[in-house]
Amino acid sequence: MDLPDRVHVDEVLPRDGLQRLDEVVPTPKKVALVDDLVATGLQSVEVTAFSHPDVVPNLRDAGDLFTALDRRSGVEYHALVPNRVGAERAVTAGVDGIDALVTVSDAYARQNQGMTAAENLDALDAILDVADDAGIPVEAGLATSFFCPYEGPVDPERTLDVAERAVAAGVDAVSFSATAGMADPCKVADLLSRADERLGLDAVDAGLHLHDTNGLALANAVTAMREGVRRFDAAVCGLGGGIVFPAGLDTVGNVPTEDIVAACEAMGVETGVDLDALLELARQVRTDLGVEPWSHALAGGTPAGMLAATGGPGPDG
Amino acid sequence: MDLPDRVHVDEVLPRDGLQRLDEVVPTPKKVALVDDLVATGLQSVEVTAFSHPDVVPNLRDAGDLFTALDRRSGVEYHALVPNRVGAERAVTAGVDGIDALVTVSDAYARQNQGMTAAENLDALDAILDVADDAGIPVEAGLATSFFCPYEGPVDPERTLDVAERAVAAGVDAVSFSATAGMADPCKVADLLSRADERLGLDAVDAGLHLHDTNGLALANAVTAMREGVRRFDAAVCGLGGGIVFPAGLDTVGNVPTEDIVAACEAMGVETGVDLDALLELARQVRTDLGVEPWSHALAGGTPAGMLAATGGPGPDG
């Protein structure tokens, strides 16, 4: 199977994973978490979001958190930004990069950001103004690239219209987000093939942000790798999900970092991440945050985990 | 993406799912379960195993169960068989087909069946003798086709040696089993490509039996569909796993039928199964058996489930 030799995993637990939690995690604990994540070999972390503090109270310490980070060289500490004010705060805080939230579906933009999709594109222009002045790279994270939790399926050409508009506005990279976790390998291959035709996958440094509501996130990741995509967001313990999603829908989380890293390891695709260290951290996160992750690797579902459980090698091994 | 128009889902809950349960399910309840499964559109059910009653006590009622079944025309009611005695019992019970258990790994054959892999092939010959006399088709289910829980990775050429031997002995079909749930898309594509070269995938009516220990079962299924495989085992609620596997390894179950059916529906691949009816049955199974399935569709992870949870269509929908 034709897969990339290496993929880049961008860890989004501190932003996407924590934003939905009932309890607010104290800043020093977030600092330690980011450092622990980087210690496993992850080279890129979405540390927080510069959202309105009333809208996402769990991330209201975004500026303080960046100030308190113990940064390592070679690691990219970036943040989600929804609008100009957020961009200004992010630049002041010294982010390495901005992930501009650009929602394709109008209904989701209204629910999640209190603006229309058209207003969201205006906000992108404003974010780019601020980022360009500061010399900070911007990735457009295209929310609801496949499916809107309020409208249903999203036309891929609509998604690509938005992507094209973002590229024309000057973003450095594009990431297609399965916000609702309802993508499937056919839709992923179709969108990526259309994106390659209209924009060039390499030209826009295409990435994927995969939620796993339908259980197809890893299938989607493998499909995308076969199409040549080499950048994937993921969250330790698979935490995450839109702040406006109803509680109780436990599977809306991101693809677990430990599962995608384990899958890559099985398939001979390098990630630079130490799986054992990552699993140890995932166990710690599970305990610290009191969560019950839908994470196969964490549940023992790795070759090493299974051999340990059976006591293998067996009688002949 | 090039996928089959239609795939055949073989439901294995009554055998693979029930064999590991702590409590024994009474025969009339099994009869009702099989009937409920068939009512959702499933056209093939692995009803039980004709194993030694001391080894798999939960399935000791195999003969009585077959007698009590209310069979519908067009549906294949078949059973797993480990040896000649099992085949004789299965024929007497009137099975439509025999799934001969043929284990590739020596260590697993010893642990699971108390015989060597070589003795297992002799047992296959004996099963075929009995089945041929009765005019009943036999599928070889190749356990540990990818990974042995006691030995680790299994050489694909070793798996194909066993498959070739089974075909030479006269089996009508071959199913490759990810018994340990440690297959990945690369290994699946590699094994299937080698199998096509050595045996012909269509010639052996190749199928897959996918456990989901590592979370890649759906990715493996999609990969296999792209290679032209059209037969997949699955279990409602994703129950299942080898009887010798340690307790507590919750993810060793089969790919959930509701998840593979939902995935097929999303991708436009027909299964003939009514997803709504299947989900209703899965909810009932969850309650009746008191299990907590790792099943995304059952947790609400379908387009309909998500729109119901959000109350969508939203303000603009």
Features:
8-stranded parallel sheet, 317 residues, homodimer, globular, two-stranded antiparallel ribbon, alpha/beta, TIM Barrel
How many β-strand stretches of chain A? Answer: 10
Number of helical runs of chain A? Answer: 12
User: Strand order within the widest sheet of chain A?
Assistant: 1-10-9-8-5-4-3-2
Helix content of chain A: 40-55%
**Shape, per Cα inertia axes of chain A:** globular
Account of the 3D structure:
The structure is a homodimer of 317-residue chains. Chain A is an alpha/beta fold and 317 residues long. Chain A has a single domain (8-310), classed as Aldolase class I (TIM Barrel). Helix content of chain A is 42%, strand content 15%. Chain A has helices at residues 13-17, 27-39, 62-68, 84-93, 106-113, 117-134, 156-169, 185-198, 217-226, 257-267, 275-289, 303-310; strands at residues 8-11, 44-49, 76-81, 97-103, 138-143, 147-148, 152-153, 173-178, 207-210, 231-234. In chain A, strands 1-10-9-8-5-4-3-2 form an eight-stranded parallel beta sheet. A two-stranded antiparallel sheet of chain A has the order 6-7. The first copy, chain A, is globular, with a radius of gyration of 19 Å. The model of chain A has no long low-confidence stretch (mean pLDDT 95). At the A-B interface, α5, β6, β7, α8 and α9 of A face α5, β6, β7, α8 and α9 of B.
